[in-house]
Amino acid sequence: MFNQILMALKFGAASEFALLKGVELAQAHDAELLIFHALDFTLGELSDDDPQRLNCVADAHQQYTAKIEPLLGDFEKVSFRCLPADPALMTCKMAREMGTDLIVLGCHQLPEKMCLGRVDYIGMTILEKAPCPVMLVPLCE
Questions:
Q1: Phi, psi of 103 (to 5 degrees)
Q2: Checking phi first, is residue 134 left (phi over 0); if not, alpha (psi -120 to 50) or beta?
Q3: Splitting the chain (141 residues) into consecutive groups of 10 residues, what average pLDDT does each group show?
């Protein structure tokens, strides 16, 4: 059913919990998992070799290596991408261009308090503009 899953990642507990669900789905469907992290969109105004931009990219890769790779276990059909962008719009654009079957998002609300009125701007924009189904994964403690 799913061939390609896009995980919109913020480095934090909600995204990390959602990532575990994304990995489960990707493994169950033998799907590819692309993890996307949006850097501050204003960095897009800088050249690709600007030290400030390079430092932000390097920091994102270090966080990915330290926080995310350990959560992947032995799952290998995964790639990571980060770039300066509006997180919601770039997630939808990437999903459209890549023919993604599912977008996975973490959210901070507990299931008993979750309602669409409490989904943040990024999540709501993705829900409204996504070219494929979106799975919201609430942080369950």
A1: -110, 135
A2: beta
A3: 93 91 95 95 87 94 96 94 93 95 82 49 83 89 61
The pairing of beta strand 4-8 with beta strand 32-39: parallel
Q: Which fold has domain 6-113+120-138?
A: Rossmann fold (3.40.50)
Beta-carbon contacts of 73 under 8 Å, excluding residues fewer than 6 positions away, are: 23
* Domain residue limits, the chain: 6-113+120-138
CA 37 from chain centre, in angstroms, equals: 6
pLDDT of residue 93: 96
Phi, psi of 80, deg, nearest 5: -125, 135
Max Cα separation, the chain? 46
Paired sense of beta strands 102-107 and 134-138, if any: parallel
Determine the pLDDT at residue 62. Answer: 97
As to burial, measured by CB atoms within 10 angstroms (0-12 exposed, 13-18 middle, 19+ buried), residue 1 is exposed
What is the reported pLDDT for 121?
65
The Cα 110–Cα 141 span in angstroms is 8
Of the candidates 120, 126, 97, the residue with the CA atom closest to the CA atom of residue 108: 120
